[in-house]
Amino acid sequence: MSLRIVSQSMLNAWNQTLIRGMSTQGGSKNIGFVGLGNMGGHMASNLIKAGHKLHVFDISKPACDSLKAKGATVYAKTAELAQNVDFLFTMLPNNDIVDASYEEMTANGVNKNTIFIDSSTIDPTLVKSLQKRISAKGARFIDAPVSGGVPGAEQATLTFMVGGTEAEYNAVKAVLECMGKRITHCGDYGMGQAAKLANNMMLAISMIGVSEAMNLAMRLGLNPKTFAEIINSSTGRCWASEMYNPVPGVTPTAPANNSYKGGFSTDLITKDLGLASGVATSSNTPIPMGALAHQIYRTLKSQGLGSKDFSIVYDFMKNEKY
Amino acid sequence: MSLRIVSQSMLNAWNQTLIRGMSTQGGSKNIGFVGLGNMGGHMASNLIKAGHKLHVFDISKPACDSLKAKGATVYAKTAELAQNVDFLFTMLPNNDIVDASYEEMTANGVNKNTIFIDSSTIDPTLVKSLQKRISAKGARFIDAPVSGGVPGAEQATLTFMVGGTEAEYNAVKAVLECMGKRITHCGDYGMGQAAKLANNMMLAISMIGVSEAMNLAMRLGLNPKTFAEIINSSTGRCWASEMYNPVPGVTPTAPANNSYKGGFSTDLITKDLGLASGVATSSNTPIPMGALAHQIYRTLKSQGLGSKDFSIVYDFMKNEKY
Amino acid sequence: MSLRIVSQSMLNAWNQTLIRGMSTQGGSKNIGFVGLGNMGGHMASNLIKAGHKLHVFDISKPACDSLKAKGATVYAKTAELAQNVDFLFTMLPNNDIVDASYEEMTANGVNKNTIFIDSSTIDPTLVKSLQKRISAKGARFIDAPVSGGVPGAEQATLTFMVGGTEAEYNAVKAVLECMGKRITHCGDYGMGQAAKLANNMMLAISMIGVSEAMNLAMRLGLNPKTFAEIINSSTGRCWASEMYNPVPGVTPTAPANNSYKGGFSTDLITKDLGLASGVATSSNTPIPMGALAHQIYRTLKSQGLGSKDFSIVYDFMKNEKY
Amino acid sequence: MSLRIVSQSMLNAWNQTLIRGMSTQGGSKNIGFVGLGNMGGHMASNLIKAGHKLHVFDISKPACDSLKAKGATVYAKTAELAQNVDFLFTMLPNNDIVDASYEEMTANGVNKNTIFIDSSTIDPTLVKSLQKRISAKGARFIDAPVSGGVPGAEQATLTFMVGGTEAEYNAVKAVLECMGKRITHCGDYGMGQAAKLANNMMLAISMIGVSEAMNLAMRLGLNPKTFAEIINSSTGRCWASEMYNPVPGVTPTAPANNSYKGGFSTDLITKDLGLASGVATSSNTPIPMGALAHQIYRTLKSQGLGSKDFSIVYDFMKNEKY
């Protein structure tokens, strides 16, 4: 028993050394994951597949059980979890929950070796405030929101938009690569979120624009496939027209061909536009199209279409119920 | 000297033969061109370069003189001009002038071999009405509006969007290829215009969207080049962000780097949105983003920016005159 | 037979004198009415009630029969009708029908004593063009569109917005007063239409604004009646909030309390906004709110709400189908 | 001595009665005022004029000196000030400053007789949270934002929109009447702010609508005064068209006749729309017109017009710089 204690302590020391060595060269890490929802569950699984040791928490017992079955250690308290990990990911629904979660995890001090990485979509201002609070306690905090949706999370093909120092970016890159295929350094703290919000605002606008243009072209007599080809080889092309056309029958893999199920929900794009709208207000940035897009998706949500892919805006606009 | 004459005449004969061989089956045609403005002048010149015999008309004498110097025959009356040509192009500023021009050209009958091709940007409804009037007289009429702007007209790299029958499309393709590099058959009469208007509406929307997203990202602290790279490899990308970024310093060839000179003027995109808005009204098509874009460019025009490239919308929005 | 001719000619002379006398003091006139729809039928009836002799035309036989039963003379040809009247009203659905109707009525000359009065809602540009054509033939033409809807037409409480000279306004005022209670001289030809379109654009905007403000206030916890009282005694008040509140239970007489039936249909306000949008485009007038309002009503129409009162926009926006 | 005790107790009883009596009939109170800016300075002065004893605080020494000269007691610490007053008004620039101010004033306990009244314009959510915090400490807190601007503050003609219980409304009414002429009970805590934000959103929308309608009417040829009369007696009328017409020469007392100076600044309406937009987002309320209005005023602000009266939106839109 004493032997076991000794060897456990030796093992721990060995582990610590190994981890420190690995943090630039790769290798198995102790990784925390708080938030095991549609996205987080897949992301945590991919970290296990890549050989890392996962320490997880979620308020949903089934979500925890699913990760436990794959080898993760489940915690009842995030504060305890946070003490045991090299990297700690949070993947949570909104500003308030992210804020409360960090409050809880760091109230009684932090493990100074931990890098906290928030992959939720939140206000860049909150990122900056969390970074200050956590760095004041001696640990590090960066933002790394994602795009790519549930399929990207499942297939480990997410894009990560990282806000932090060059050194922090380098320190987390290898771990992020277990979950994504494009890891972009956007700038300082909060710039990952800023990039995500501005990109998604553009996406939100262009999806409505494509829906209007396709609908108009079709009502004027054009064949939708013909018009999509024209636009896609011309100045009107965009990701939404090429890769995710909202008209059924045009892009085979798009949600439009699957009754607008799956994909990127109207609820989520509405949430992102709410955040973008907030930072536009605080920075006095005119966003007439972004603001109108926000209201249009909000209207779709009110009409009961919140859980559908956001390209359903085409379907809504094409209606002719006379 | 006689040698020179002979060799010149031989050269001409050789050229004619070569040209005839080069077009698919045709060869040198008698082509009419009515409207020798910024676009039409270059287009007519390119037809001459391709070996065709040009018959031209414009209300501007210098415009006519310039084409005459290149070998074109200048007419005082378009009705007479129209009797002498295989193909007749019109490239005119608006619905009313196009309508009046066809009225004049066809009032006293038509040459039944002539194919009239309108490359102006007009209402698809007018196209259909002109097609009926002209086919009733025994000739043919199709729409073939262009995109690519003055540089495209000069370098013969325009895109033509053709509305007409398959046979008519095939009949005009070789001639259009003397002026453009992409000749698309969009569908029946008016569908060329419909495609152009819907494409340009999308372009108008995405340019404002990109301007808002770039401006927001920059005010939040992102570097414009970094953000442009992120958006261009992500779901927010569009032609305007990739090829024609409105922020100076991002796309080297864009008008943004040349004080928003040249390019596609705010006046012209406002005109196209006016036409798109008209057909959206008559077809009861909701175009919230298109309508807002229309008002934004109209406001720029009112602010004295009508002659600037339409990407100046970024410059207008980024202002902070406190 | 000669007696008959003589007496007819005497009768005519007597009639002319009588008409001249009446035209300033009132008295029975020969009045034509072309277009006996929901509005026109009531208006023509009110002219009969006021003692005038009505000469009517409509493509609907029941509409004609109804007026015949009240004493009107029904015509098969408007050209013939127009020869027999002092005043001729047109109350027709749109630009094209108004244009065609005047073409038909005046093709073979006009009775130079006739004042043509168009009470339809049409483009002010068409008004000006009709005025030129008709005055060139020797008769007079003015615009006098109405507001007040079917109830106003029925109860003879319409507002007439008159475009024409002071003399013409004075010449028609007494007749218009048989159908309305407010006869406003707006200015020269077309200014009646201009006033109506600009007023209705404002109405369209404020109805949506009130709907948004009421809905927001209620979602934040305010009682709708309390909030309506606050707004109506404050800077947010408008006709739509005071007289026609879109929230059921607030204004007892408003269509909101009758399942949004009756009133001013979404179809009609959409039509008026289409005309306003057209003249804004041709006059380069920025109308961002007007254009957005247009798209919102157009969307309601597409959602099958075209025949409902336009205040149904509140009902549409308040939905929460989760 | 016993007499004295008796009389002291009688005096206390009498005082209580008096206070109770005063609370409906008036009488001199100890009133705190935190925030002596453009609005607050005048409001505090009016309380002095009405016979109350003022206890004031502001970070600006001149603002404090000005009130001191009128008889107010100036404090260095708001916590101390708050202990000495029956009513304490806060009139501060934004959410954060209001929040911080209450934190400071109540950190070391409260005088349980004090009614705190916030007349700033802030988020209704913050009102509810402040009410909970302060009532938990034993004092009362209500919201009573104002409309009427600097002239209303100066002339004691403000409108107060009160959120709180019926009893609290009755308790503060007499004091508010020293500063305003219309004291409205809007509902429970936060409902004063909710009413103000929803009313001002409507005002913001209708001012732009009136500007568009006036501009359109004028460009079509109508005289602005004639059109204003038409609209004001018709369905397009609103407070902005009647009392505050944005076209110079129409409403003599409007800022439009004074180079858009004074009045209600573009900066302030933009701020209010930012708050309205925030609560619309959190309550999922569609506000398409409100959101567009927000962006339009924000654009005016960016163009350097933030300090001008918000009716300058007309002047901006009417521009024709060709």
UniProtKB/TrEMBL annotation, chains A, B, C, D:
Q: Which residues cross the membrane?
A: none
- Active-site residues annotated for this sequence: 196
Task: Supply the enzyme class, top level.
Answer: oxidoreductase
Residues in 6-phosphogluconate dehydrogenase NADP-binding domain copies: 30-187
What would you give as a GO molecular function for this chain, any one? NADP binding
Q: Which GO terms describe its biological process?
A: L-valine catabolic process
Q: Which reaction does it catalyse?
A: 3-hydroxy-2-methylpropanoate + NAD(+) = 2-methyl-3-oxopropanoate + NADH + H(+)
EC annotation? 1.1.1.31
Mind listing the UniProt keywords for this protein, alphabetically? Branched-chain amino acid catabolism, Mitochondrion, NAD, Oxidoreductase, Transit peptide
Q: Where is the 3-hydroxyisobutyrate dehydrogenase-like NAD-binding domain?
A: 190-315
Q: Where this protein primarily resides, as one coarse class? A: mitochondrion
Q: Which PANTHER family match?
A: 3-HYDROXYISOBUTYRATE DEHYDROGENASE, MITOCHONDRIAL (PTHR22981:SF7), 3-HYDROXYISOBUTYRATE DEHYDROGENASE-RELATED (PTHR22981)
The record's family statement is: Belongs to the HIBADH-related family. 3-hydroxyisobutyrate dehydrogenase subfamily.
This protein's name: 3-hydroxyisobutyrate dehydrogenase
